Amino acid sequence: MELFERPDSGERAVLVHVGFSGQPDEEELQEFAELAGSAGAEAIAQLTGVRTSPDSRTFIGKGKLEELKELLAMHDGELVIFDHELSPAQERNLEAELSCRVLDRSGLMLDIFAQRARSFEGKLQVELAQLKHLSTRLVRGWTHLERQKGGIGLRGPGETQLETDRRLIGARITRIQKRLDKVDAQRELGRKARRRADTPTVSLVGYTNAGKSTLFNRLVEADVYAQDQLFATLDPTLRRLELPNNTSLVLADTVGFISRLPHELIAAFKSTLQETIDASLLLHVVDASNPQYQIQVAEVDDVLQQINAETIPQLIVMNKIDRMEEVEPRIERDDEGRPIKVWLSAVSGEGINLLIEVLAELAASEQVTKTVELPPSEGALRAALYREADILEEKYSEKGDTIVSFRMPLRSFNQLKKNFPLLGEEPSAE
């Protein structure tokens, strides 16, 4: 059976969500509707149901399939979006039964990413993810794809390749991967330079739309794109943040996470997420006004585990307190006095000073401040301190020795101490 000719349009969508452990959660349905809206779909109807397991042929049963056909006819629908992963066969069977385009959750998120990508690297990453996803869907041959003219799930940097055969798609994937490897190598040079300069990197992570970019802009007075929409930020942005105690750090704004983030996207955005993996500290931004925030925190922790970043220290930032009643900016500490949470509003600026205070405290805890007396024979150590440390004061003793007060990262101090025993025992970190 030949596939129908796909329509040029296709933004009027029926949304389908099936609960496999009881009725679908209202928050899940709301997030799904927001995802569809982020892609530009007009949600004309929503179909929900409960099953113990997906139907192998069409994911939903015959009764729901008929209900779906009626909804499409009643509302003049052009597209069906499933809040689930569909197999290539299920997607194909549904399209044949419904005579309209069918998109699953991965395809929907890939489309949103295609719209949001702004940098050269981001566009390459989206194209790579799209091609990998689409290559699993193209079982029957490619001729029907020549009629795809765009629309949700079909646009993006990779759409011009859709009429080519598998060999050309494979070659394109290889070329993109090589380009991304080159970009990643350039990023790694930057990361190595920061490590040599002992400048800590702090990465903002969190569920999509938690307010990371707004917080980033507030901290570094940047103009990173920040909107009340899912996945507003795809490309990592790095800025230096000067702290009150004469220390500084590099702040990185990264892509937001979401439940059931497609594996193709995690793989494609590896170089973007590398900024998270290499961070000294993660600022985990949480929408404190969302009643489901604990579930979102768990989803973010799950993705961090997937990219091997679960062992990096976290500071929880409870954002959006301006939307909550009787919640004041504050710092929460553990039993040992270490800061673990900061409550603030990135939009109003309430509590930003508390976050800066905590960042300065954490940066200082990684610093060593010490005064040493150097005889004339220790010229090499004096030179090393001037090269690697921040010299606070230098004066001379009555006997002609040089007294140097300095501050430097604890890690660098420990390395230097191996070559210059005169530095003595490791001081306590301030």
From TrEMBL:
Residues 200-367 form the Hflx-type G domain. The keyword GTP-binding applies. Mg(2+) binds at S213, T233. GTP binds at residues 206-213, 231-235, 253-256, 319-322. SUPFAM superfamilies: EF-G C-terminal domain-like (SSF54980), P-loop containing nucleoside triphosphate hydrolases (SSF52540). Its cofactor is Mg(2+). HAMAP family: GTPase_HflX. This is GTPase HflX. It comes from Solemya velum gill symbiont. The gene is hflX.
